[in-house]
Amino acid sequence: MIELAAVRKSFGRGPRGVVLDGLDLVVPRGEFLAVRGESGIGKSTLLNLVAGLDRPDAGRVVVDGIDLAGLDDDALTRLRRERIGFVFQAFHVLPYLTVAQNVALPLALQQQTANIVDARVAQMLAAVGLADRGDSMPRELSGGELQRTAIARALVHRPAIVLADEPTGNLDTAAATHVIELLRDQVHAQGATGVLVTHSRAAAAYADRVLVLSASGLSEGTAS
User: What is the C-alpha separation between 174 and 138, in angstroms, rounded?
Assistant: First the structure.
């Protein structure tokens, strides 16, 4: 589902600007992968490359059989809109929309009919335990509920790939455990492929496989 081959990405000049160098990665369809590493090591850059938000300086990024180098900006936008769901550390829930309206956003961008939107939003809110909070405003939710809203929004359009960037970073231990279990279970339930990047060993423990990103590249790792 995801393949990176000899990928290099730098920001600025000189060796200190190199974030990823010669990176290889293969994520099979249906796998929930955790990439663990310290802050600043390039985990978010890795996700941005997979999503086509950044372009590599060298190497290939292939998503669902599509070489992203062959796509222009409009095609990359369509790819993200149709095939990718995002979960961020900072939630990015729009404060002026209700929970249900936030979850509906990916379907609205796809111009789905009202019946489809209503049905899928209700289904996802129930799946993440927020069936009774659809009319609530984000300010009325806890951190854990906000992140569950973000998960529902990321999965409502049934993407092939779900990318999660430190999704438990702003949560206490109990909420973090609930959120990461929910994310894993929903990715598996929808048959999607998930990539979680995190510095948290506890969060990584819920993945099917753990890789560790360091200055020398990716290596097999464990949550412990």
Answer: 20
Say which CATH number the domain at 48 has.
3.40.50.300
pLDDT value of residue 91: 79
The alpha carbon dihedral of 89, 90, 93, 94 has a sign of negative
Domain span at residue 150?
A: 26-56+84-220
> What pLDDT is attached to residue 39?
85
Q: Strand 58-63 relative to strand 32-36: parallel, antiparallel, unpaired?
A: unpaired
State the pTM of this model. 0.91
State the total domains in the chain: 1
Q: ∠154-116-144 over CA atoms, to 5°?
A: 30
Q: By the 8 A CB rule, do 178 and 185 touch?
A: no
Q: How far apart are CA 140 and CA 133, in angstroms?
A: 9
pLDDT tens digits, residue range 113-138?
999 999 999 999 999 999 999 999 99
Position 89 scores a pLDDT of: 80
Q: Is residue 3 part of a domain?
A: no
Query: Are the beta carbons of 203 and 168 closer than 8 angstroms?
Result: yes
Instruction: Answer yes or no: is 187 within a domain.
Output: yes
202 occurs within a structural domain: yes
